[in-house]
Amino acid sequence: MADKPAIVLVHGFWGGAAHWSKVILELKRRDYRSLHAVENPLTSLAEDAERTRKMVKQIDGPVLLVGHSYGGAVITEMGDLPNVTGLVYVAAFAPDAGESPGGISQELPPAAFENIAPDSDGYLWVKQDKYRESFCQDLPEDEAYVLAVTQKAPLASTFGDNITAPAWAKKPTWYQISTDDRMINPENERKMAARMSPRDTLELPASHASLASRPTEITDFIETAVRDTSG
């Protein structure tokens, strides 16, 4: 495929840019050369959106944004940049104007809600001994343990940050639903996907960490978006 776009991968809560490692390698094998994985501070939606916005603005040519989990809220907030050709949501939040990830979760709580605990500094953590069963039950135990130990906690206040104007109302979208997700209720994923009228929806029998447990299928889905936006 000629003139492949740059792909910017945006991580969510309880993980950093390295959560995309398997998808990155799969994209590289398919001859994608302009790959970028932003490392967001997870301190506020405004700060995370601005960090991602700065990365995209430094890229010449078309950009496809791919957001996992809370990363979906980030690309929703900043994804209206002129060079952004589309938004791919991977088991992700896609709030509307005035909505927040926390508000969406309170409407239909996920199965692992009780396994999230605050610390004394205002950060939220997935309890380490509950991480695999909550976040990535379809990954090998050792791999899940590493993710649990290296998890990147968000400030609790970030959950309540509202979207201003959703980019999915202006840009083409694609949405992957994880039917065994315990961090975002799968019914919430279906609702968010349906209202944005995506060009394609993919349901996988996967955990919240579908980017790690099903990297081939996720990469296939990203390529679907590339083909659709590249003509």
Automatic annotation (TrEMBL):
InterPro entries linked: AB_hydrolase_1 (IPR000073), AB_hydrolase_fold (IPR029058), Sec-Metab_Biosynth_Hydrolase (IPR052897)
Domain of life: Bacteria
Matches recorded under Pfam families: Abhydrolase_6
GO molecular function terms noted in the UniProt entry: hydrolase activity
Keyword Ribonucleoprotein: no
Location of the AB hydrolase-1 domain: 7-218
Keyword line: Hydrolase
Protein's UniProt name: Hydrolase
